Structure formats: structure tokens, C-alpha cells
Amino acid sequence: MYFGCHVSIAGGLDKAIQRGQDLGCRAIQIFASNPRGWRAKPINPQEAQNFCLARQETDIKYVAVHSTYLVNLASPRDEIRSKSYTRLKEDLLRAGMIGADFMVLHPGSHGGAGWEEGAQHVAQALTRIQGEMDLQTRVLLEIEAGAGFEIGSSWGNLAYIMGQVPAAQKWLGVCLDTCHSFAAGYDLRTASGWEKTLHELDSTCGLESLKLIHANDSIGALGGHLDRHTHIGSGLIGEGGFREMMRRQELVDLPVILETPEDSHGDFATNLATLQKIWQTR
Ligand SMILES: [Zn+2]
Fold first, then answer.
1. Catalytic pick from 14, 90, 150, 177?
2. Which of 128, 163, 211, 217 has its CA 20 to 30 A from that of 274?
3. 106: which residues sit within 8 A by CB, 6+ positions away?
4. What is the whole-number distance in angstroms between the Cα of residue 259 and the centre of ligand 1?
5. Could you give the C-alpha distances from 117 to 11, 108, 136, in angstroms and in order?
6. How far is the CA of 182 from the centre of ligand 1 (A)?
7. Nearest to 261 by CA among 212, 217, 226, 220
């Protein structure tokens, strides 16, 4: 497994590479621009080139970009969908310029219109993106906890979206966030829970569509639909659940990225050390 974490781009994109390298990351995730604003300043080509050059000097094998939180392609409101579409395209341009492997996208929230309608909006937007862009970056739909009107809290829901997009297997995929999956009802504490989860994933999306894991322990209960990440081993999934993840042969070649908090109980360095410790005793 290629362990890593979400790193800051403060001071320039290439600084993210250095931060990842300092932490010993084999995979990193970044925001391509301000994750809480609609507007993003254009990426400087020199900065993008510096990022690519800096990456070559490191052991970082995978780079993922996380889309902006505001993006909601499933919204029932035309204006929100239109702004989301523009913003996602801008972020995909950025991701292409820095040679990112993946763009992680939350399927979004249907706002009360029903998950099927929301999912159709997402599929339409992705179909349009594919027609308008020459994509180098694979777009990954991240499983959601299923809070409120969130769509995409089951593998079947994600498969439903992908099933409506042309050539989906060529440029789409899924991201398994351990906290979201657990909150959505997938029991990742045990070997049998992992078996069941991966079997369902395989029979809907196809196991080959799983390209990235977000490793986060969960504060919320199994099936509680609460998206609250915590340190590996301190939540309800526990070290045992992550050990079972690492024992799965079909997952060993995947990048595993931490999105754990940085607070008085730990930071990315301590969580990476925990993952390494579990890996040694798997
Ligand atoms: Zn995540």
C-alpha cells in the first residue's frame, strides 16, 4: 500500500510535494485551489512545472486532487449546478497541468429532489465533461456517509451514476473512504465486514474501479450517517479494522491517504506511524 496524507498547498503547489516528502508519503492529496470559494485564480504554468519537477525527485507515486467542497453537481438548482460544473472543469484543468492521477469528487446532495434525480444530474455533468475535455486525470466518485440529502452512500448508487456515463471505466472510478463507508453502514471492523463490503463493491461498480482509499477512523456509529473523521485507532473502526484492510490482497497496490485531524491528539506524522505499525503486524 502507498501511504500518504492530504497536504497543504500554502506557499505554492510545489510546497505540497516537499511537505509530503518530509512526512515520508508515497501518495499525497491536495486541493488545487481554495476549497471553500467559487473563484480560483488561474494556476501559474511555472508553478505547475515546478510541481512536476519536484515530484520526480521524490518517492511519491500517486497525486490526487480533491475537488472543492462547494461543488454539487447533484443540486436541484440550475445555478448551483452550473457554477459547480464550471468550477469542476477549472479544477480538472489544474489537475491536468500538474499531472495528477486522480480527481476526487463528492457526488453531492439532491436537496430533497430524490437521489435518483440527483444522480442523473451528476451523470449528465460528467458526460458533458467527457465531451468537452481531453482528460488525463481519472475522476473518482467518493462514497459518502449519507448525511442529509447526500447521494452516493452505497456502491450501488455510485454504480448507477457511472452506468449512465459513456466509457466510464476508462476515466471514472471510486474512492473508498473508511469513515464514510462505516457511517454509511459498511462494517469495516472485521474480516467478514471487509469481505462483504468488497463483494458488494465488486458486484456493482467492479473492484477494478476502486483506485484510492481514504483512511480515516470514525467518530460516528456504524450506519449513523455522521461524517466525522478521527485518528486511526481512536475511533469506532479501530486498529483491528485497518489491519483487516491491510490483509486484503486485492487492496495492497492502492494508495491510502489520511484525512485525519491535526490536533492535540495527533497529526499526520503520528497517523502515518500508526498505519506503518499496523502494516508491520498485519
Ligand atoms: Zn475522504
1. 177
2. 211
3. 67, 69, 71, 72, 142, 144, 150, 152
4. 6
5. 40, 12, 28
6. 12
7. 217
Residue with cell 497536504: 7
DSSP-H helix ranges across 72-154: 78-97, 115-132
Q: What are the cell numbers at 66?
A: 480533491
Q: Which one-letter amino acid corresponds to residue 149?
A: F
Grid-cell match 486498529, residue found: 239
**Is 106 one of the annotated active-site residues of the chain?**
yes
Q: What is the pLDDT along the chain (282 residues), one digit of tens a residue?
A: 999 999 999 988 889 999 999 999 999 999 987 767 777 777 889 999 999 999 999 999 999 999 988 899 999 999 999 999 999 999 999 999 999 999 999 999 999 999 999 999 999 999 999 999 999 999 999 999 999 999 999 999 999 999 999 999 999 999 999 999 999 999 999 999 999 999 999 999 999 999 999 999 999 999 999 999 999 999 999 999 999 999 999 999 999 999 999 999 999 999 999 999 999 999
CATH homologous superfamily for the domain 2-280: Divalent-metal-dependent TIM barrel enzymes (3.20.20.150)
Q: Which residue has the cell 477494478?
A: 208
Active site residue 199: no
Residue 4's SS3 state is strand
